[in-house]
Fold:
Amino acid sequence: MKIAIINGPNLNLLGKRENTIYGAQTFEEYFELLQKSYATIHFKAFQSNIEGELINFIQQSDAAFDGVILNAAAYTHTSVGMGDAIRAIDTPVVEVHISNTLAREDFRHKSYITPYVKGLIVGFGIDVYRLAVESFLLESHSPNLS
Ligand code: DQA
Structure:
């Protein structure tokens, strides 16, 4: 399985940025542990502060990956273009946010991404990325609860 993790603006500052909201771990540290924990999954991480670069990467993810985990950060709340890019590709996208955006300022309640994603995981800290990976594994490992 191939999974792309796409991080939007200011997520390169995880570990330094607003620690009480986003935690003290850098994404690089977390990503290394994630790769070790899921040794059979091929991960690619991409971060940009530039909207067009993020859209280019979403477009290139089509067919190249089995799933995309996307934290569009501030562009979540502003970018029609990123929403359109997700609509345009067949690869399923899971939207994640480290913080619970719905418990924060009103402008963070709007997402141009959510209508087009497979699912949404918010508010569990940096482990939202791991939970999103698990969501892609659900179909193969799902217990029979019926
Ligand atoms: C964020 C939430 C966004 O509102 C914010 O602009 C971010 C990070 C999160 O992961 O909690 O940069 O996407």
